[in-house]
Every structure is written in structure tokens, then in C-alpha cells.
Amino acid sequence: MAAQLRHTPWGGNVSARSGVVYLVGAGPGDSGLMTARSLELIASADAIYYDRLIPPGALDGARDDAELFYVGKAPGVSSVPQAEIGERLIEAARSGKSVVRLKGGDPFVFGRGGEEGEALRADGIEFEIVPGITAGVAATAYAGIPVTHRDDASAVAFITGHEDPDKEESALDWEALARFPGTLVFYMGVKRLAANAASLIEAGREAGEPAAAVERGTMDGQRTVIATLGTLAETVERENVSAPALIVIGPVVQRREALAWLERRPLNDRRVVVTRARPQASGLAKTLRGLGAEVVELPAIRIEPLLDSETVRSAIERIGEYALICVTSPNGAHLLFEALGAGGLDARALAGPQKQQIEEGRSNVGTKTGPVVAAIGPGTARALAAHGIAADIVPERFVAESLVEALAAVDVAGKKVLVARAAEARDVIPEHLEGRGAEVDVVALYETVPEEPSPEAIDDAQRADYVTFTSSSTVRNLTKALGERFPGGARIVSIGPVTSEAVRNAGLEVDVEAERHDIDGLVDALLLDAKSEPGRLGRSIGD
Ligand code: SAH
After folding, report:
1. Considering the entire predicted model, what is its pTM?
2. Ligand 1, residues 38, 52, 110: which to mutate, most atoms within 8 A of Cβ?
3. Nearest C-alpha to atom 13 of ligand 1 is from which residue?
4. What is the mean pLDDT of the chain?
5. Above 60 in pLDDT, residue 363?
6. Residue ranges per domain, the chain?
């Protein structure tokens, strides 16, 4: 179990130490609010014990061989008892593992981190605490409610609204809380809201004081309802606010009128379906989420590498002979280098004796040696750059025809050319190059195969405002996979004419077509459309 050594800008070795338990806060739900330290530890831990309320994708960075254990407690569902969690952490640490115990929010704020730390100390196990952003601070901030304010609140109290049911007497001093000169924030406060509010009012807190409930703070579908201390329980019940939710009481709640920001984001309240294959989807999904959209990932295709073929092996063996290498997708770029790696080679294999001068203005060849490398677009060029290759030719528009145009500057007659691409790609580029007298090797590095969408994702997609398509293969596969369950009411956004054609062939209508045929162009087109189209989720309620 060799811990990975990782080095940070501040120079330390931050890998998880073996035999140590890290009690780590994962923040309130938005994966962007996880700390750098938590991500480092997740990336290097041998074993991770995680709770229910951790952000989606929080464990994506874990090692492939890390052991992951769910030890969460869903309300009303039997779960791993607290004592057993402690025992398992101790056992894992004793066997020399580096252990991350990942909890929602902050481990010491209503997270039982204190108890777990005590149990570890009692058994002589070393631990470290990694704080996380607690819901009381995060959900409120996302709701536009400042927990303190110079004019309204000089103090804030974090209170549990749901105590240990075994306790005989309430530990909460309602008189003290009623007198508390500042904001009251209740965690776990929905179930007993009516009783707790009544206790506060009875103890002298003003029934007319502004109060809010923030549901699913920082997560997809965050919702804030506003009322007063006296009416909040009724509002929460009527609006069906459910856990996780935070109750906030105090004049600061009114500041939301001026400070609400989440609901102002351009794609707030819009549900957008992303149909790209998973590894590519993340960039688009992130951009859309950043604009406020709720994203449903419904990948219609999956990339299957085809590196174990005779054509690939022989192309890699002769990689030094090519005068020109054309790469037609980011996947192609990454897999080309994977294939080189499999052949015991790396980027140096591309440094050969050939050198071509390409027409002024079209090239950045300079004094580079080796083949001319052409990328179909900026994304592919970036993927090549990640492997140390600065593409010589990158057309502005990324369709095969533009690359063909740009290749006019390269002398290919009688030369060997490699086209690295997907199995089912169009033949525009090889045919053009052959027409100009090149000896072309077309090498399929991967194929795209249909992906079976999950029933949950299909359900989530039904109320989508938009379905985005970035290639014709996703259109064909998704419409086939969904059939009747294709979300009929959603507007269809296509990346460009070829994809639009596929949409129409599938019997659907294109509502929006991007002017620039790349991901940014698609997002711009969607944003423009969203300005004039109302959202369907209708979530901004209560105030
Ligand atoms: N350790 C966690 C709190 C765990 S107690 C932290 O520091 O945030 C669980 C309670 O926290 C929930 O019942 C709810 O009241 C609150 N909570 C956690 N995540 C929340 C979220 N995303 N939005 C609103 N409340 C949340």
C-alpha cells in the first residue's frame, strides 16, 4: 500500500499517512466547496468511509484500488451503528492503512467527529481533522442570508433542532435562546420545527421575527422559503420542504431581498440534459452548473479504446516515418499517446528527422523536428498539448472540411500520413489526402458504443428544459435508447449542422443551433435562448 507522494506548492508531502485516520469535512454538497486538503487526502487514502451527505462525485478522485465503504445514516433506515464505525476505523488504521472518514459539512459541527476522535485517541490511533464548510454558513450564503451583519446580528448560534431522542430532558435552554442577541441557525430542525418555534415564542422570542428554511443548500435544486418565526412551520409543511434543510431565524433573513444571487444566475431553474460520453461530459456539465443549471447526465455513448489491434501496433512501430499526423478528436489524442506508451514509447518518438516549412501565418512549426501535427480543433490541440505536442495546424472551425482546407499548406505528395481517429468517422480527410498523392494510414483508436442510460437519469430528464447534442452519434443512440421516453417538452440544442441533420432524421426538431460549433458556442446559444424562454421547474417560491 505505497502511499502516493504528492507535492504541493507549499512544498509539503501531503499524501495520507499510513495508520492514520483523517476526519474530513466534505462541505455542504456543492463539490466545488470541498477543500483542497480533502481532495488530496481522498486521492491518496487506502480506505474511505463516507457518509450520505457528501457531494456527488466527491470520491471520483479516489485511487482505483482504494476501498470505499458507505457508513451513512439515512433518516429512518437502519445503518452501521456509530460504535461499529469507530471499530472499523480503528481496525483499518491498525492494519497500516491510511484512512479517510468523510463527513458532510464540518466533522465537528453536529458531525460526531468529536466522538470518533475520542474513540481513536482512546485506542492510541493517530488522527487529523480537516474542517469543512458547514451547512450553517454555506446554505445561508447561497440563500443570500448573511448570518452576521453589522446592523442586524453581532452573533450567530448553531443549534441542533433534533436532539438525541433517548435524552430525558431537553438540553436546549429556550429562555437563553430566546434572549440570544443574534441569528439562530437550526440544523436538523425540520421535523420538530413547529414545537421548537412554539418553545422559542413561549420563551419570549418575537413571533414576527423573519425566518427562513433553506432546503438542499448549495446542491442542485436548492430552495429557500421565507416566513416568520410564527408561520414558518406552516409554510414549510405547505411547501413540502424536506431534509436536508436549515432553519434560520433573525432579521438577517430580510437581507435576502438585496443579497439573493443564486436565483439570478442565467440558467437558474433550468434543467439541462448532457448527452456526451462521460469523460467529455464533465466540462460541459461544469460550465452549465456554474451558470445555475441543474444538469442531468444522460450519456448516450461510451468510448471503447481499440488499442489492441494490428493496425494500431504497426502504426506505432512506424510512427517515426510519418510526415504528417492528423488527430481528429481529444480522445484520439489521448489514445494515441496511450498506444505509444503501450509500445514503450513517448512523445520523443515523434521527434524525427523530417521537417516541413508550412506557409506563413498558418504554422507555428518554427524549428521543430518530426512530423507536422494537425489537430481538428482547439480541444484536440489542448489534448495534444497535455502530452507535450504543440499542434502545427489547428483550424478555427472544427469540422473535417476546415482541416482539409488548412492542410493545403502541407506538402503531402508521396509522403506517409497517419490519420488517428474513431472507427466510425467520416472519410473526408483520408480521401482528400489520398487525392493529393499521400500514402494514408487510417488508424481507428477507439469506437463509440451505445451506453445504456440509467432509469433514474431518464426520470430526471423528463422535466428537462433543454437536451443538448454535441454529435450525430449521440443523437442516434439517445433517441434509440429512450424511444417514447425522450423528454418531449424539452428544447433541443445542437452543436452544428451535421448534428442538427441527425436530430431531424430522428424525427425531432432543432430549437437552437450553435453558431460556433464547439462547446462554448453551444453554451452561448443556450444562454441566448434561455433569456426568452421561461424555465419549467418553477422553484423560486415563498418570497
Ligand atoms: N456536519 C454537518 C451537519 C450534519 S447534521 C455540517 O457541518 O454541515 C445534518 C443537518 O445539517 C441536516 O439535517 C441539515 O439541517 C443540515 N444540512 C446539511 N447539509 C445541508 C444542506 N446542504 N442544506 C441545508 N442544510 C443542510
Report:
1. 0.78
2. 110
3. 188
4. 89
5. no
6. 20-133, 137-262, 271-300+451-530, 304-448
Q: Please tell me the residue having the least CA distance from ligand 1 atom 24.
A: 245
pLDDT computed for residue 354 by the predictor: 55
Catalytic residue among 73, 355, 368, 416: 73
Domain 20-133 CATH class label: alpha beta
pLDDT interval class at 513 (50, 70, 90): very high
Q: What is the pLDDT of residues 56-87, one digit of tens each?
A: 889 999 999 999 999 987 766 667 888 888 99
The highest-level CATH class for domain 304-448 is alpha beta
Task: For ligand 1, say whether the CB of 510 is within 6 Å of any of its atoms.
Answer: no
Catalytic residue chosen out of the listed positions 30, 46, 51, 392: 51
| Ligand 1 centroid from CA 75, angstroms | 13
Q: pLDDT band for position 402 (50/70/90)?
A: confident
What distance in angstroms lies between residue 537's CA and the mean position of ligand 1's atoms? 24
Architecture of domain 137-262: 2-Layer Sandwich (3.30)
Other Cβ atoms closer than 10 A to 364: 11
The pairs formed by 151-155 with CB atoms below 8 angstroms and a separation of 24 or more are 152/183, 152/250, 152/251, 152/252, 152/254, 152/255, 153/182, 153/183, 153/250, 153/251, 153/252, 154/181, 154/182, 155/180, 155/181, 155/182, 155/183
Tell me whether the CATH fold assigned to 20-133 matches the one assigned to 304-448: no
The strand pairing partners of 69, in sequence order, are: 49
Residue 24: CB within 6 Å of ligand 1?
Answer: no
- Quick one: pLDDT at residue 358? 57
Helix (H), strand (E), coil (C) string for 193-250: HHHHHHHHHHCCCCCCCEEEEEECCCCCCCEEEEEECCCHHHHHHHCCCCCCEEEEEC
Residue 53 Cβ < 6 Å to ligand 1: yes
Whether 127 and 23 have beta carbons less than 8 Å apart is answered as yes
CA of 104 to the centre of ligand 1 (A): 7
Q: Is 245 in the pocket of ligand 1 (CB under 6 A)?
A: yes
User: Which is the closest atom of ligand 1 to the Cα of 29?
Assistant: 22
CATH class for the domain made up of 271-300+451-530: alpha beta
pLDDT at 369 over 90: no
Residue 104 pLDDT grade (very low, low, confident, very high; cuts 50, 70, 90): very high
Tell me which of 46, 106, 188, 460 is the catalytic residue. 188
